[in-house]
Amino acid sequence: MVIHPERVGLVRTRELLARDMGMAMGTFRNRKPYAEPGFPRPVSSPGARVMLWDGGQTDAYRAGDPVPALPEPGGAGDLLDRQEVAAELGVAPRTWDGYKRDPRVAEHLVVVCGVEHWPRGIVREFQQARPGKSGATGRPRGSANVLPRGQAEDRVAALLAARPAITISEACDALGIAPATAQRALAQVRGKRIAELVEAEPGFSFTAAAEELGYPPAVRRAAVEAARMAGSRT
Fold first, then answer.
1. Domain residues for 66?
2. What integer pLDDT is reported at residue 232 of this predicted model?
3. Is the pLDDT of residue 1 over 80?
4. Which pTM was predicted?
5. Rounded distance, CA 98 to CA 208, Å?
6. Helix, strand, coil content of the chain in percent (nearest 5)
7. CA 133 to CA 135: how far, in whole Å?
8. Which of 24, 81, 94, 124 is the most core-located residue (most Cβ within 10 A)?
């Protein structure tokens, strides 16, 4: 299930449902009225830590009225939670935790009852904006960088957000930069991402963070060294 953008104001948490039903939270937890036959299905993803329901449906159920159907999912405006986004992209939820920092999706974040969501259309645009789809023909050997050096890390960061395992050659083709520039930028950006994840998840080692972010074994050593340098500067 997903949340339709026009029904965000109707979303209910456990706490709000307990209030609507006039129950203390302890009673609500014990009775679990949402487990009764016929109770509306959650609009949160299966297994979500914060369960969410559509208040229009729960109000109808409590009143003994027919439960109205929700709009058919699949629209670009549908709001997806972390697990639903990961399923849409075909990645692990923790991988999305790294991707969601990309400016192309970060500015579209919608928080519903304390839970992060993103529009399906934005997620699909992010999925399509992967390197290698523009038909780039490569950069002639020995030619100068097309992209100014100062912009290399920002552009490489966008490529990595879409494809953590991107190679130096692919970055060169996508951005028109020299191999040495691509190698340096990839290591620096990967290092920053690793350092950020370790800071956010103290249980991770640098090596474990590199693996979690999807960085190939061949590049992890350089990325971890860059992460240690980035961490020492904070």
1. 1-129
2. 58
3. no
4. 0.56
5. 14
6. 55, 5, 40
7. 6
8. 81
